[in-house]
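A reminder before we start the practical. When you read a complex entry, don't treat the lines as separate problems. The point of joint prediction is that each chain is placed relative to the others, so the output describes one connected object in space. Small molecules and nucleic acid strands, if listed, are placed in the same frame. In the example below there are two entries. Take a minute to note the order of the lines before looking further.
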Amino acid sequence: MTGRGPGRGPRRLLCSRPVSSDPVTVALRLYVSDGGPHAGVARSNLERLLERVGVRFDVETVDISEDPATAEREGVLVTPTLERLRPPPRLRVAGDLTDLEMALDGLGLRIWALTANSGSDDQEPA
Amino acid sequence: MNAVSGDDRDRTTTGIDGFDFVAGGGLPSGRITLVAGAAGTGKTVFGLQFAVEGGRCGEPTVYVGLEESPEDLRRAASSLGWDLDALERDGMLAFVDAAHRGERQPVVTGAYDLDGLLTRVRAAVDRIGARRVVVDAVTTLLSYLPDERRVRWELFRLRSELTRDDLTTVVTAERDRDERLIARHGVEAFVLDSVIVLRNVREGPQRQRTIAIEKFRAANHQQGEFPYSIRADAGIVVVPLSSMVLEQQTPTTKVSTGVEGLDAMCEGGLFESSTTLVAGETGTGKTLTACHFISATPEGERAVLFGFEESRTQVLRDAEGWGMPLRRHEEEGRLELHCEYPEVRGLEDHLLRIRGVVERVRPARVAIDSLSALQRVGSPRAFREFGLGVTSLLKEFGATVLLTAIPGRAAGPTRPASTGISSVTDALILLRYYEVPGQVRRSLTVLKMRGTAHDTAVRDFTVDGGGMRLGESLSVAPGGVSGGLGSSGAADVGTGPGPPE
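Here is the predicted structure of the whole assembly.
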């Protein structure tokens, strides 16, 4: 509750991608602990994930070490955690997103996923 | 503030009646205590009670609920008479709600740690200035972690977090039936400071709850398992067993048995604050002896009779027939009669109820008629613990006690080896049937009396409108038709050697 000014919200990253005839915007929230070893990996893996999916994204990142109140309100236990906020249902995956396929399935984003060689560089799942 | 001085470090009280005494003042301050038990043993009640006690003595508590939501915990506490809302309002309690909310476990996509939880605990501790923490139940965390190495690592971090500010912490852990779960996951090693184990063992038809301090960093505590109960108005209540027995001063004052002639056999009566066991078959006069004893309570002192064989009405009617003014004593507030069926509650609850009455009334004399009736409602082990518990409890309050029991010959080879009551019984009086040509008569013998050169005669007695009338000494040992004497007799209630048949 201390040390946070009222005006500072979570950092937002708007990543829009021109995909015709699909008005869906997927809202995601990434919880990380910036002091921890997994935060950086999770952030870069999230970038890779966004490139795999052909919809508009609204992504916010919450650093729980700065904002424990949000972690408390949302019941976050493990970090990193990536949550799909919209469209419903709300779904969560735990971990630094090294396994992108698991993340896509866990968040129910598979239906919007671009095939592996249609978009970005073909990558071996780590 | 609230810490009680122990042998080597301070203690933090739990507010659990009886436990703090057994533990030498409470839990070791600034350390982590593991409270382990199977489902339903009251681990969460232990945690809540610890938090409520914190509120009572101005030590704020952070409650990390990994299994139940704060709402469920508030409701559970409320059913035990604790208002957690008020504690939260007063800044004495903060929840970290870490119960799993979704129906599914989240999909794992790579490496992670429990920073989310640790950060929230740290924030809550800082926010209310906590002195106490409850983590309930730490075993839930295991499901979030992939292997033992990670479990130990995360527990190590949690431990560092908790001990950083000298917090006194209760960590609960679920144990499986074989009690191996904790050791398997290294949780025990993590909380090496202290381990308390709650057990809820079904022995026969009754549950037996016990609490044991298995490992304590501070050495000053009592060994063994202690019965406990969970009560709607008080939470966990622990019954210290042999707590006071050894500290009793040697009694010198004698009090009357109420039976004419028996006092003379005992060199003036029973020692004050002593415990006497009256053993005999059904109908030999146990209730009669108990009523004599109760009715002889001097004016200005109070007595309590716990009856488990007959109804209150029956006892009063019997006493009237023997010319004893029990009804009047009751009306004058000198006597309380508590008669109930043994089966209405478990042994530890009987013990707690007896303690409640004794605490309130502070009687000079207590009679329990009979222990054998209570034997029906518990396992041999539970009964033994009850016997020890009740005698030490009554000694603690300085009451002179008369217990009755059936020698239990009918139990045959399956009878309990010993009820263990012998070690705390100061005197033993045996009532027997014996046969003369054409007649079955009754006799009384003082078999044992500590510190007294008692009369060892076997005395015939009769019963009339004045109660028990002791008659002549029998010169020849009576042949018992239903004697209950000898190896299958008195020894059966743990009374030591009886004369040969």
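Discuss with your neighbour: The CA atoms of residues 104 and 110 of chain A lie 5 Å apart. What might explain this?
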